[in-house]
Amino acid sequence: MGRDGERRLDRSEGFGEHLLGALLDQAHELPPHLIAPLVADAVRGIGGRDPVLLLQDYGQLVLVPLSGRGLAAREPVPIDGSSAGAAFLSGVSVEVPQGDGVRVYLPLLDGGDEVGVLALTLDDVDGDDRRLLRRFASLVADLLVTKSGYTDRIFQARRLQPMSVAAEIQWSLLPPLAMTAPRVAVAGILEPAYQVAGDSFDYALNDDLLHVATIDAMGHGLDAAAMATVAIGAYRHARRADIGLAEIYAFMDRAIAEQFGPDHFVTAQMMRLNTVSGHLQWVNAGHPQPLLIRDHAVVERLESETTLPVGFGGEEPVISERALRHGDRVLCFTDGLVEEREPGGEQFGEDQLIDWVNRVERSQEGVRAVVRALSHVLKEKRGGHTSDDATLFLIEWR
């Protein structure tokens, strides 16, 4: 029985399979603008009401509502300090009892990356409901990711301020900002979100090997974005040819030199992590040394021989190696993070970065929550602005 003695709707596994199967049948040729009514109809079908689809804005500060027929109108919700934000950051549903039932906030997960949050109200919630809602939220997340490839509406909903052309190019290049697998998790963030130009990152999990690259193209604006595009394209092309890190560096170096000439360069760091053994290899081409985090504290800088930035025709690079322990994290970052001037004129510096990494690591859990919190607190401590691109990328061997 439900509230006030009414007969409870059937939300058993059999009902759930029928509902989700019907949604899948409709989803294949569903136009993107009909996602909202499809979700709203499904919520009504399980006895829910007031559905809201909340998407992460590009600055990762708020969750913005997706408009559409059948969805409740809402204002943007801050990620920090809200029930929706708690579900978003933890990847676990949050239930809030209310006078008319239970408000449920469901994380929309796609391969470990958070698309947003689905919120709805039910009279009450039991185990069958939670199982159905979890599967329903997964299907909604897949729909949003798939359909966003051929509509601007989802992009427009997430954009809270004007975005530069260079930033638009960079966001189109990026892989999902986070990925979680049984043996490894990664998360990255770019600042300033709406003006970024030369910084970027890329990764791929190919069988047991995680491949990662972070780059910082010289200059600003479209020139930097163009160089970053070529650098990432060259990295992906070489990586997909299954060649070694030294060969990847050489291929990227030639691509930048041939396209832009001898006066242009891109600093870069390319890594490979064997997710079975924890064996880490990397080539550093002008980047700050990555930080090794163990037991939620920075234990050392991963010192390595540095080769010339990509585009300068450097010699064959030295490949550095390190055996990680389970639970170790490696933080890569670009120089814009530490070379920014504080309000008093002093450079922010790596020592302050390490201090704040230790503080944030103790207060946050997952890699995505750590990267987001760290980026925001560092920006605040640097005076609330970023005059150069600043990138963080965190790897966890699980």
Describe the structure.
By secondary structure, the chain is of the alpha+beta class. The chain has 2 domains: 3-157, GAF domain (Beta-Lactamase, 2-Layer Sandwich); 163-397, PPM-type phosphatase domain (Phosphatase 2c, domain 1). 34% of the residues lie in helices and 27% in strands. It is built from 10 helices and 17 strands. It has helices spanning 13-27, 35-45, 83-90, 127-147, 153-158, 165-173, 221-239, 245-260, 349-363, 367-381; strands at 49-56, 62-65, 77-78, 94-98, 101-110, 113-122, 178-180, 184-191, 199-206, 209-217, 266-274, 279-285, 291-294, 297-301, 320-323, 329-333, 390-397. The strands form 3 sheets. The protein has a 6-stranded antiparallel β-sheet, with helices on both faces. A hairpin with a 5-residue loop joins β1 and β2 (62-65). α1 runs parallel beside α4 (127-147), α6 runs parallel beside α7 and α9 (349-363) crosses α10 (367-381). 40% of the residues are buried. The model has no long low-confidence stretch (mean pLDDT 91).
Summarize the structure.
With 398 residues, the protein is α+β, with helices and mostly antiparallel strands. It has helices at residues 13-27, 35-45, 83-90, 127-147, 153-158, 165-173, 221-239, 245-260, 349-363, 367-381; strands at residues 49-56, 62-65, 77-78, 94-98, 101-110, 113-122, 178-180, 184-191, 199-206, 209-217, 266-274, 279-285, 291-294, 297-301, 320-323, 329-333, 390-397.
